[in-house]
Structure formats: C-alpha cells, structure tokens
Design a protein that fits this description.
The chain is mostly helical. It has 16 helices and no strands.
C-alpha cells in the first residue's frame, strides 16, 4: 500500500499546476459519467431498465450522497488551523454514512417497488454513500495543499468503478450484477486512490477528542440542510415522475435533463473562478465592481442558455436519440417542448447558483435557508399536481417554474442584501 500511495502522490514539482489540471480532469470525468451512464443502460437494456437506473443513480443516489457528504467539504478544506483532526472528520463522516444507509433502507422499503428496482436502488445508494465517504479523503488532500490528489482520486475512482459496471453490463446483461460490480469496484478504488496515498502524507493527524461530533455537527448542519433542500427542489419533478409514471417515462424524462447538466457544468466553470474576486470586491466596499461582475457572469449564463436552447431545438432530440438508442429515441421525438422547458429551467438554476454564492459572500445564510424551505414545499406541491394532471409536460413546467421562482427570490434577496450590507453603505 505504501508503494501504491507513493506512486499516486508522484513528485513534489509543479504542484500548483497539477492541482488545477487534475481537479478539472476529475470534475469533468465525474460529471460526464454521471450524465451518460443512464443513457448507456437505456441503450443496452431498454427504457424500463434505464428508468430504474436513472432514478436510483442520478436522483435518489445523489440525494443520499448529500446525506453522507453532510456539507463537510467546505468545513474541512477551510480548516487550515486544524481545529479538527482528519481522524475526527473521518469518524464524523462514518456517522453520516451510517445515517445515509438507514435513510436508504427506510426509503427503499417504504416507497420503492420490490424486486429489481429496490435492489438497484440499494446498490447504487451504497455506491453513492461510498462516494461520500471518499470525499472525506479528497477534502483532506485539498486541506494538505494537494488538490491534485483529490482530482486523481475522483478521476480514477470513477473510471475504475464505471469500467467494472460497463463490463458486467455488456457481458451479463444484468443491471443488478453491473451495480454490484460498481459497488465493489468503488470500495477497491477507495483503498487504492484514497487510503493508500493519505497514509503516505506526513503530519496527518488521526486522533479523536471528546466533543468533536458536536463541534462538527454545529459547523455543517445548515450547509447540509441547505444542500439537501436545494437538491430536492431540483429533483422534485423527477421524484413525481418516478412515483406516478412508468419506469420508461422516468428514463425519457431524465434523458432530457442531460443538456441541462452540460449547461450547469459550463456555468460552474465560469462561476467558481470569480468567487474570490467577488469576495475581494466586497472587502474593498466596491459595490459597482461587485454588481458589474455579477451582471457579466449572469449575462454569460443567459447567452449559454439561449445557445443551448437553440441547439436543443435543432439537434437535441436526434443527439439524445443516438445516446439512448432507436427505441427510446422514438419516444423522445414527442418531448421537444419538454426539453426546451427543462433547458430554460437549467439556465435559471445556473443563475440562481450565482446568486446563491452572492448571498453566501454577503453572509445571508439564514435567508438562503428560508428560501429553500419555502421552495421545498412549493416544489413538492407543483410537481405532484403537475405530473398527475399533465404527465411529463407538467413535470417540465413544474421544474422550469420553480427554477424561475427561486431565481427571482434570490435576485430580490441579493439586491436587498447589497443595499443593507455594511461594507457597501458608503457607496452612492
């Protein structure tokens, strides 16, 4: 294990450059596989199997990942003074993963259909829970100034487990076997890509002290609740489709979200680099520059969304049909309006993420949480009613409408916070 860890760490040269390149590579590979894996299942085993996997992996699996993750990465990576040791972060993450396991069992037995759907749900949730546990190691790599190790871990864990998944999927034609293989592959890759390298790093403290659970819970609870509610609002229409429509419909509906994921991936590449700049502008009290930066990024997101909508109108259905196969592609032909609604909703979601970060910088976390609480109730109600009355058209309308509403609420809140912020009060 020491030899594997040393090989994974590599040389001590060009660490800053490797941090950037490997972080981008890891994020891109993770996002790409998350978007396309369900399409591969649909193309290989049909729309019904694709719908089961799409929901288990992309919808419920991502929700349960948030429980395992528990908002800890921002806390851990910014803990430069090591108020908590790695051993304490790891122990806390084991507790959050245990909570995720219990949540999965509860949801599976209460709401999931028995048989293959429930088995796939449990296996993919286990995969995502292990992903949440591995993030504790990735966070420690970043805290130790070696973000490139987190990027490597993300890239190789994803590639390794997905390779096992695809090999078993094509050979056995069994979704359950493929998901079980991915789960085992994920566990093995965590040993190679996380445990081994970290054991070779100096000055990583593993002791645990009394009171660490209470301390870390206090730091992460609001981040967890905000992220959990945010993801539920984003996925509420998917939950409703899974509940009231067929597994095949679930596959078709999640497939039309793929272009939205591309827009959000591109938007995040634009948003994240300017967060430090926005923080500096606030510290200087430069309100005009702050507003200009937000307007510039918001305009870029608007252009990306219009470009994506135009491409979707012309090429969206044909390209998605190539991904999911001929049979599923025929069903997608009648969903062009739903596709455009989802893409517009994705543009609003990217914009509200920009405004979310603005409110974080302006220290309005309580206001963010209130918006999410209101949005959760409205998202559930609109998704339930929309899908029951209008099927997938209702789901798409619910999603787009909720993203627009949240964007407006975040915009109003940001404008109010700018007026009231003490660091900007000296501005005209």
């Amino acid at each position: 294990m020491n030899g594997i860890g040393s090989f994974f760490i590599g040389s001590e040269t060009n660490i800053a450059k490797r941090n950037v390149l490997w972080n981008m590579a890891g994020s891109f590979i993770y996002a790409l596989t998350s978007m396309l894996l369900g399409a591969v299942v649909t193309r290989t085993l049909g729309a019904a199997a694709g719908g089961i996997f799409f929901f288990a992996f992309s919808t419920f699996g991502q929700q349960i990942f948030i429980v395992a993750y528990f908002g800890m990465r921002p806390v851990q990576v910014t803990d430069a003074g090591e108020q908590a040791t790695f051993g304490e972060y790891r122990a806390f993450r084991l507790l959050s993963c245990a909570a995720a396991v219990l949540s999965t069992l509860g949801y599976g037995f209460l709401f999931s259909a028995s048989g293959e759907a429930r088995t796939v749900l449990f296996l993919t949730a286990g995969y995502k829970i292990l992903d949440g546990f591995a993030d504790c190691y990735d966070s420690e790599f970043q805290r130790q100034g070696r973000l490139y190790l987190a990027g490597k871990s993300n890239a190789f864990r994803t590639l390794g487990s997905v390779a096992v998944f695809l090999a078993l999927l094509f050979v056995t034609r069994s979704l359950v076997a493929a998901c079980l293989g991915a789960l085992i592959g994920q566990a093995g890759m965590i040993l190679l890509c996380c445990v081994a390298p970290l054991s070779c790093l100096p000055n990583v403290r593993t002791e645990r002290r009394r009171g660490y659970i209470r301390h870390l819970f206090a730091k992460s609870r609001w981040l967890f609740l905000g992220a959990f509610l945010d993801l539920y609002i984003f996925a509420a229409s998917k939950y409703a489709v899974n509940r009231y429509l067929t597994a095949a419909d679930n596959s078709y509906y999640t497939t039309i979200f793929i272009p939205t994921s591309v827009i959000n991936l591109m938007a995040n590449f634009v948003i994240r680099p300017v967060l430090t700049l926005l923080s500096e502008q606030r510290e200087r009290g430069d309100k005009a520059a702050f507003q200009a930066t937000v307007a510039k990024i918001g305009g870029l997101i608007f252009v990306l969304t219009l470009f994506g909508a135009g491409l979707a109108w012309l090429l969206g259905i044909p390209v998605l049909s190539l991904l999911v196969g001929v049979e599923a592609g025929k069903a997608l032909r009648g969903l062009r309006t739903e596709l455009l609604l989802v893409i517009l909703g994705g543009g609003f979601y990217a914009l509200l993420n920009l405004l979310y970060y603005c409110l974080v910088i302006l220290e309005r976390q309580g206001l963010i949480f209130l918006i999410y609480v209101l949005g959760t109730g409205l998202a559930w109600l609109s998704a339930e009613q929309g899908v029951q009355r209008f099927g997938m058209r209702g789901a798409a309308l619910s999603y787009c409408g909720m993203m627009l509403l949240l964007t407006l609420l975040f915009a109003i809140s940001t404008a109010q916070a700018l007026r009231q912020d003490s660091k900007f009060r000296g501005e005209a």
